[in-house]
Design a protein that fits this description.
The protein is 35% helix and 26% strand. The chain has two domains: 143 residues, no CATH class; 68 residues, no CATH class. The strands form two sheets. Strands 1, 2, 3, 4, 5, 6 and 7 form a seven-stranded antiparallel sheet that branches. The chain is α+β, with helices and mostly antiparallel strands. It is globular.
Length: 223
């Protein structure tokens, strides 16, 4: 089980990070890519973005390994500056998943770690590059990604449903954190949150007494 501090930051940042992933998809679509570790870039056909390597997942050991702890891959230090900064941040915030060299994937996998990492480092998004035996996780930065439209209501609810089906998070805290950090000034009561999204659409979320999302704009919410 992940630490309580890890869970707290996942609730705070997950939807913001998933919005960044949505923006990446809107830029690259169905894509082929080319990774250039010497240049520190990743190319998706006509788009080329600078990147940082934060770590890898192993299908064999079922563990996450931070880039700064990887003794087999000779990475340039410049390519793992973000990973090093995240270790320092994790130490300050008391998050063991960010300070231990490796983490069991049942505790925290690369996607969950990257969702937090992309927001802490203010990257544009993260990217999972799979290979035989595992995957490497990258942080990408580019204004082309940043400038894509934010979630509309349908995309927000789809991302929220997917997130809550995979992670045991407090529904109310997760949605309220996203709306607040986006500067949308949500009106929040114990069992109700309402606001206007950047798309201009009205969002009214109803919660049960346990903080689980029950309805959106009067329609039952089903994970």
């Amino acid at each position: 089980m992940a630490s309580s501090a890890f869970q707290t930051y996942l609730e705070r940042y997950a939807l913001l990070s998933l919005e960044k992933q949505d923006k990446l998809v809107s830029v690259i679509g169905e894509h082929l890519h080319e990774l250039d570790l010497d240049a520190g870039t990743i190319r998706f056909e006509q788009f080329q973005f600078p990147m940082q390597v934060i770590g890898t997942e192993s299908d064999n050991t079922l563990t996450w390994l931070w880039a700064w702890a990887d003794e087999q891959t000779e990475l340039q230090t410049s390519l793992m500056q973000s990973a090093i900064e995240l270790r320092t941040w994790g130490s300050v915030e008391g998050i063991p998943e960010f300070t231990m060299p490796s983490v069991d994937l049942n505790t925290a996998d690369g996607t969950a770690i990257s969702m937090i990492a992309s927001e802490v480092t203010k990257a544009s998004c993260f990217y999972r590059d799979s290979y035989e035996g595992g995957a490497v996780f990258l942080l990408l930065s580019d204004r082309t990604i940043d400038n894509q439209p934010s979630f509309d209501r349908a995309r927000l609810l789809r991302a929220l449903s997917d997130l809550l089906s995979q992670h045991d998070l407090n529904h109310r805290n997760t949605l309220l954190s996203y709306l607040t950090m986006k500067g949308l000034a949500p009106a929040a009561e114990r069992n109700l949150i309402s606001c206007e999204l950047e798309s201009g659409e009205r969002l009214v979320a109803e919660f049960d007494d346990a903080g689980r999302l029950a309805a959106i704009n009067g329609a039952a919410f089903v994970i």
